[in-house]
Amino acid sequence: GQSLEQPSEVTAVEGAIVQINCTYQTSGFYGLSWYQQHDGGAPTFLSYNGLDGLEETGRFSSFLSRSDSYGYLLLQELQMKDSASYFCAAGSNDYKLSFGAGTTVTVRA
Amino acid sequence: DVKVTQSSRYLVKRTGEKVFLECVQDMDHENMFWYRQDPGLGLRLIYFSYDVKMKEKGDIPEGYSVSREKKERFSLILESASTNQTSMYLCASSPRDRGWITGELFFGEGSRLTVL
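Above: the input entities. Below: the structure tokens describing the complete assembly.
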């Protein structure tokens, strides 16, 4: 089975840095993905980590440690438009992508 | 841009009714998925398909079935709707290799189903 844990809520001010942690228990683990979803919108793909280490995409970075079954999404220079829900998702070798419950990020002025 | 279109944004059905949720993608993707999203539970995989006429059970297939007669279309069927199937249903697609290697799915806007 698959199990992913992430915090339910994070609040920060504009310009700050936020780290969303994700721990997983996934049989046949393949890699960790991150998605963003604004209220009323579709989830959109942000990043993927197949190997240990940091992947950087503009203001967002994602990290994976396979030995710790742990990853995180780092949001830098927070902007109001970053207020959204963020989901980690674990891919497994049975072709499934299992999602965490999501972290609601609220950015305050 | 990849477009995944779900036929209905909002549906209200009665207990026991048969419900069809339709999803069409325009990028010739091999893989298609149906998830349901509930507050506090994230997205849970119902069924997926990696080719026409092929289907695989996800984590919560009970009470659902699917149909994939054409590559671009993936339908979710609730044979006899129940109140615990009230939820947001999300369809997604991905190219075969990239989707399974990178976990990059393209989602539709969702269909919010209420079963009374």
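Note for the figure: Chain A has a mean pLDDT of 94.
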